Amino acid sequence: MWIIANWKSNKNITEALSWVDEVGPQIPRNEALKVVVCPTVMCIEDVKKAVIVNGYHLTVGAQDLSSFDEGAYTGEEAARILKDVVDISILGHSERRQHFNETDETVAEKVAQAKQYNIESLVCCQDENTPVPLGVKLVAYEPVFAIGTGTPDTPQNANNVAKLLKDKHGSELEVLYGGSVTSENAKAYLSQENISGLLIGKSSLDTTEFIKIVEIADNLL
Ligand code: PGA
């Protein structure tokens, strides 16, 4: 089961480290529970060091990566460089599609870059029709209406979409749900047959709320 924190464009280094200091020691050492934090690129290295030094059961990920390989691409974060500090990357988040003109084609290029440098791709699907590039093993169903709105999809519908995605791309595909997840509703999604975890924005910024969700997941395993 996956619990993934997507901080988006939040937290400076001090705030990021204080989150890790608080959350890190409370993450259960359960091999079946994969807790991931995706800070801004600026904070990734410090977060990673804190995790390693303290031996926390926490994986560090990126929120995006470049569709290009290393080279003359000003401002881009290439997979080959990110690889030193991350194991996984969110790709094709709807905010990137909306504000940064990402298309299904660029997402496919990013997935190829991630694959080349051994970074696991977590592809965000806005619905069951979002293309999932071949070889992707992890996706998040995140309906646009539910992101940051306080209006999540129902657990039943999220489960149905997860099932459709698995039918389309293979039963080994793991599908997470994301969109207005809180400690109040987390259990209902995690209890669904076809849902393998959560991608959490706002509720991941608050340590108490995030730890509660991690505990809920741990108790279901
Ligand atoms: P939210 O964001 O939890 O704040 O709705 C989820 C996401 O965008 O991944």
Describe the structure.
The protein is α/β, with parallel strands linked by helices. It has a single domain, classed as TIM Barrel, CATH 3.20.20. It contains 9 helices and 8 strands. It has an 8-stranded parallel beta barrel, surrounded by 4 helices. Helix 6 links the parallel strand 6 and strand 7. The chain is globular and about 45 Å long. The protein starts with a strand and ends with a helix. The relative contact order is 0.16. The structure holds 2-phosphoglycolic acid. The site of 2-phosphoglycolic acid has 13 residues, from strand 8 and helix 8.
Give the tags.
221 residues, alpha/beta, TIM Barrel, eight-stranded parallel beta barrel, 8 strands, globular, binds 2-phosphoglycolic acid
Can I get a quick summary?
This protein is of the alpha/beta class and 221 residues long. It has one domain (2-220): Aldolase class I (TIM Barrel), CATH 3.20.20. 39% of the residues lie in helices and 17% in strands.
Bound molecules: 2-phosphoglycolic acid
Helix content: 25-40%
Shape category: globular
Could you say which structural class the secondary elements and strand pairing correspond to?
alpha/beta
* Distance from first to last alpha carbon: 8 Å
What is the average per-residue confidence, as pLDDT, rounded to a whole number?
Answer: 98
CATH hierarchy class name = Alpha Beta
Report the sheet with the most strands, covering strand number, pairing sense and barrel closure.
8 strands, parallel, barrel
